[in-house]
Predict the structure.
Amino acid sequence: MLGYLRLSKVKRLRLILLISLAMRAGATSADEPARVVSMNLCTDQLAMMLAGPEQLHSVSYIALDPRASAMVEEARAFEVNRGLAEEIYLMQPDLVIAGAFSTRATVAMLRRLDIPVVVFDPAYSLGDVRERITQMGEVLNRQEAAKALISEFDQRLELLREEVKEKPRAVLYYANGYTSGDQSLAGQILSAAGFENAADEAGYSSGMKLPLEVLAVTNPDIVITSQPYPGASRSEDILTHPVVQSLRKSQGSASITDHNWVCGTPHVLRAIETLSEARILMIEQEP
Amino acid sequence: MMRLFLLLSLAVCALFFGSLVVGPAGLGFGESISALIIGDGGPLTLVMREIRLPRALLAVIIGASLGLAGAAMQGYLRNPLAEPGLIGVSGSAAFGAVLAIHTGFAGAFALGLPLAALAGALAGVMLVMVLAGPRGGSLTLILAGIAVSALAAALTSLVLNLSPNPFAANEIVFWMMGSLADRSMTHVWLALPFITLGMIVLSRLSRDLDALTLGEDAAQAMGIRLNRLRLMLVAGVTCVVGAGTAVAGAIGFVGLVVPHILRPMVGARPSRLLWASALGGAAMVLLADIAVRIILPARDLKLGVLTALVGAPLFLHLILKLRRGRL
Amino acid sequence: MSLLSVSNLSVKLRDRPVLCDVSFEVKAGELIGLIGPNGAGKTTLMRATLGLLPSTGANSLTDMPEAERARHAAWMPQAREIAWPVSVETVVMLGRIPHLASGKKPSETDLERVNDVLAQMELTDMRHRAATRLSGGEQARVLIARVLAQDTPLVLADEPVAGLDPAHQIAAMQTFAGLAQEGKSLIVSLHDLGLAARHCSRLILLKQGRLVADGAAETVLTSERLADVFGISAWFQKTDQGPVYQPLEVIR
């Protein structure tokens, strides 16, 4: 008994490796994982874009929420998981794809159960979007599809990136008074659409709580807020604070971030398109 | 006595102005005050009138409410541990407010939020008074308070967890600890009428509470109508705590710390302690609210964290003192 | 002049009769000792008389409106409660509450009255001390002073001299007797039958919620009644220095 417990770490790892190799061999012929479960909204969408037929088995339940997910229709074709170790284990996946913010305990548990888990970092820039697509292509063994998607992404982005002379000053403002600076996906969307991020000039570049007072003094041309969730919350109260209201009244249309803003997928291009149109409208309206 | 009154009033005034000039926007004193009074419609005026003024006003009225409610409850129960936050009245009010917000009752009509919080506070006050009994022995009072607080906290968490809104669950901290950050004049107008009413009701109890120093029997034989006293106390505490909690969450310990510090200065008379605690409460909450902005400017440190850091050790000290029977 | 008239006063607590058909009348200038063993209903009788307990029967005091009642009869409960460390003077001033118009501060008359009773109870020196820090006996004197400050024709006190030293016991009883001479009347419950016999002008004896005797000490404290009600024997004599009463032995 003691001898068993003293089994060296190396030996145990080797054992695990053997078992997992055996399991994979039992699946499809090539290295391509046959039964993939994604438990993160963003990996859901990348996987749906890149996976071969029947390759993706399940996506997270958030993929069905139109507020957060840009691919609700597509997601209906898959089984839905709630990110619980037990249900995912019972799906008997060859591969689980999780986000960096997925519950550590769940990921650790799945690994202990000998299920391979790949963790994706979130995208903080448009460059990250390309990297994630490449990564997903590799993980799913769908490199060709990934290359095609990236070149399409690059072309569309090139078209959108025109020279902008007059950059309106914008602030992204979310529940609890959080903002996004330049070093975030939302900030990059903003500058790609030809806006100046006014939170940067106020010294809030890394995306943190922007005090209401600082927002008022910054006096941006436009305040872009998030869409309120159903069921009121005090956190979102701040978006209807008189200060935010008056900034919106005096300065142009109130844009709202939607599902296209959430994840580092090619859908961010849609967000940039919409925002560019809003900018053009703003400039036209000004006397 | 006049000196204490002047001193406390001066402190409240000074802290009020202090509260007006402290903030992340870093405006100068003259600049802020002129922006507040003259008002050119620019961003500075917006900051002063819509952010800092309501914040300072709420600190004053909510602090005064909590101080007064603490002093009144202590006078009635003849127990220095009675405090709206500790005995679960604030928690119950928070539950009422949370329920109103998340069922849409608060959005349905203007007074929905404060009225629901008032109903919560009323339930809390009644429960504690029934559980602890009129004599309010320390042990029963604290046990009743623990039960009511725990129940209110559990129900609040339940409602917030059931909400479809992803932010709701994180708001438990706000409702349990309280904060004055980013409140607007709307909140001031929502709370002010109820708080004024409650404070008037409570301030009329001074003679009754003095008489209660000698116990219920003696007070009643001196012509004090105990039923009326009980009714007015419950109504007053409900109004001030309910309305305050609806807009700022449950800020604990103010009603414990302030009367305890001021009691020796007013010769321990419950009547004088009422107004002194109202002023002292306003000063304490203003001070705490300035401190949260200076200590962690960008993080919305909750007000109740600070008051609890001061109040909890004092609470323990009081329990020790009571155990030795020295109070 | 009758200050109090009670007839057929009965009190039930949870359907158990604790006071049955007690009737008595109090005239001006009487110091009445209310005596009886533990649980005989002394406190109940006084509280019911004051209207602090629901009761049946006729009662001239509870017929009065509450505010007037507080100016007619003062009450010193047995529990010597002083909840906060207020000064002696403040406690005594509380007795003036029934005389103050609502929202008014105490007048010169009120202050004078307080000074008088403080002097009367030998409390002038400690008037600024916190009442809660005094000894039990001193607190009792403070509370007696509070009752006197209420300045009512009728005073009811539940064991006011319990816990006082002999000197202060006698002094308190003499104060009461002095008040009776001024025309006030007092009902005082006592366990010390010696003090009762010596200082009271009249005794009321209760047994199991019933009034069994009412009158002067020598008529009430007969050896048969003492044996029956208290189960004791005693020595009782009228001496040159007034009546002397000494309980001797338990005979049950």
In short: Chain B is about 75% helix and 0% strand.
